[in-house]
């Protein structure tokens, strides 16, 4: 073998060895199968409300799908902002998720300085469902319609207290819009979730409140509370005899509430897509769908990009509505 050929072979051998060495030295870019450990699902309201029940049903379904624990962690306060801010500041790895209500996009416009931006600080996963909220009063309250409610408050000549599941919540915002439309004076009493509010309604500590349609139906059937009107563009299937606020003569309350799943911004897209696919499979299962429908929850489901469009549109809508109604919370 001549020297030229030996040198060529030597160069080839060293080159192959070098490539092999580089392949061994380079770390794998493949991410572990998600999830490889427990997932924390933050519910920014107290246990016992409609949203909390939905969160626990979703968590149960995902836990079965993933064969990993999905733990619901209630972090109530500040109209849901405490829990939302916790998720916004969490590691963007898919192991801390947020089950949010419409209040997520309303808070930045309601408060001068919100701790998070609902579009910038979260990765939308899926819009899971929509629901109706209802204005309810105690059974002996002297009103059977929203109009009679407004007339009664006006006659009293003093502010009437009402409760919602949180400061800056959809119920709070809707009642502020209603108060401005009717010219009546109301005093908002915020609770850390629907459960504590219902306890005080039943205990006669507060005369009126805004609750989910399923809660309104449950206590109306038991003869303990009376629903007067529902928010949204159509009547609730759980309360077919209860008119909407618009039917009652009051515009500005046509938006329905939604329940959605979020991750922190910058969560890897493959993780977001996997969670979205899996949660959409969970909510269309016959057993879960039946339970949600019985609760008055309209199952929806969507892709991350479709939900991102909804979040942006909802933020713009509520910002305009809040500005038009001149509502500002401190």
TrEMBL record:
Similarity remark: Belongs to the UPF0065 (bug) family.
Protein's organism: Cupriavidus metallidurans (strain ATCC 43123 / DSM 2839 / NBRC 102507 / CH34) (Ralstonia metallidurans)
PANTHER family given in the database record: BLR1237 PROTEIN, TRICARBOXYLATE-BINDING PROTEIN
InterPro entries: BUG (IPR005064), Bug_dom1 (IPR042100)
Name this protein carries in UniProt: Extra-cytoplasmic solute receptor protein
Keyword Glycoprotein: no
Key words of the record: Plasmid, Receptor
């Amino acid at each position: 073998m001549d020297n030229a050929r030996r040198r060529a072979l030597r160069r080839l051998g060293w080159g192959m060895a070098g490539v092999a060495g580089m392949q061994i030295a380079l770390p794998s870019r493949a991410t572990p199968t998600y999830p490889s450990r427990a997932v924390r699902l933050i519910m920014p309201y107290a246990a016992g409300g409609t949203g909390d029940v939905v969160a626990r049903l979703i968590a149960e379904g995902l836990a079965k799908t993933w064969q990993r624990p999905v733990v619901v962690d209630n972090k109530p306060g500040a109209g849901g902002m405490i829990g939302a801010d916790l998720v916004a500041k969490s590691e963007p790895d898919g192991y801390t998720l947020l089950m949010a209500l419409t209040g997520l996009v309303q808070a930045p416009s309601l408060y001068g300085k919100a701790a998070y931006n609902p579009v910038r600080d979260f990765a939308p996963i899926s819009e899971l469902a929509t629901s109706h909220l209802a204005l309810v009063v105690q059974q002996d309250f002297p009103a059977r319609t929203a109009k009679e409610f407004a007339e009664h408050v006006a006659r009293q000549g003093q502010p009437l207290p009402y409760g919602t599941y949180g400061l800056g919540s959809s119920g709070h915002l809707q009642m502020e819009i209603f108060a401005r439309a009717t010219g009546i004076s109301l005093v908002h009493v915020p609770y850390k979730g629907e459960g504590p509010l219902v306890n005080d309604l039943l205990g006669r500590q507060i005369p009126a409140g805004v609750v989910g349609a399923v809660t309104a139906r449950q206590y109306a059937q038991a003869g303990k509370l009376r629903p007067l009107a529902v928010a949204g563009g159509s009547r609730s299937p759980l309360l077919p005899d209860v008119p909407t606020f618009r039917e009652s003569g009051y515009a500005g309350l046509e938006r329905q509430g939604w329940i959605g799943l979020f991750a922190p911004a910058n969560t890897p897209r493959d993780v977001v897509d996997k969670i979205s696919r899996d949660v959409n499979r969970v909510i269309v299962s016959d057993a879960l769908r039946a339970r949600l429908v019985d609760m008055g929850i309209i199952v929806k489901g969507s892709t991350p990009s479709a939900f991102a469009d909804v979040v942006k549109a909802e933020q713009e809508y509520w910002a305009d509505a809040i500005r038009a109604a001149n509502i500002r919370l401190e």
